[in-house]
Amino acid sequence: xxxxxxxxAGGVIVRPxxxxxxxxxxxxxxxxxxxxxxxxxxxxxxSDEACALREVEEETGLRCxxxxxxxxxxxxxxxxxxxxxxxxxxxxxxxxxxxxxxxDDVRWLSTAEAxxxxxxxxxxxxxxxxxxxxx
Length: 135
Prior knowledge:
By secondary structure, the chain is of the alpha+beta class. The protein is 25% helix and 45% strand. The chain has three helices and seven strands. The chain has helices at residues 48-60, 111-117, 121-134, and strands spanning 5-16, 22-29, 34-36, 39-41, 62-76, 82-95, 105-110. Strands 1, 2, 3, 4, 5, 6 and 7 form a seven-stranded mixed sheet that branches. A hairpin with a 5-residue loop joins strand 1 (5-16) and strand 2 (22-29). The longest helix has 14 residues, at 121-134. It starts with a strand and ends with a helix.
């Protein structure tokens, strides 16, 4: 069993709707059978912010602008290690949303739809943080 803290970073990507609402992008990972936000491990020498932008682009095909930091979420991963993930609000500035790498589906959803589709309660906390940041 491995020990040690794993650092990761990711994004909550948002776009406005024609009706004035907000949609968020979720990714599906077939190897975990989950719906979540794009994220990944911080590489040696990489800043958390750079990791978040890189991972979002690698998993979704979207280049994004980094917004406010939302939350840092920690949990015990499948190898019994502490995983600490920092998340930022992001807005697309280029590319097309499509599955890449370990992602096999991406979906733009209203925050209510996303809340119902997210696999993990910790990800729903990110939606709450997003709502608070919008106020």
